[in-house]
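Section 5.1 Outputs to date
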Amino acid sequence: MKNAGFSLLEILIALTVFSIASVALTSGVITSIRANNTSEHLTQATILAQDKLEALLAAAPIFAAGSDSPRSDFTRTWTITSDTPQAGVSQINVSVSWADSSSHTITVTTVIND
């Protein structure tokens, strides 16, 4: 007579292998979600910085440093430094900061002739 089916030991080994694979897969998914979230915030911050830089360039030659919060999780600051990096040139820096699991800042810089 032939025994059909699986033994208890075979089932326990299969469940152990499945559990280890599930933990590894879950860890990969969590890492992917965090990377996606960071990428989304970085893209939004870059767009906000570029938008403000374009607005400042359109308002030339009237420049004033300042800050605002264009979106709920972002803080944007801009500075204008005359005669930097050389005489007759102004440097414009626009920085956007946000915090998720840690603090992040992106800065967009350009120079224009005075």
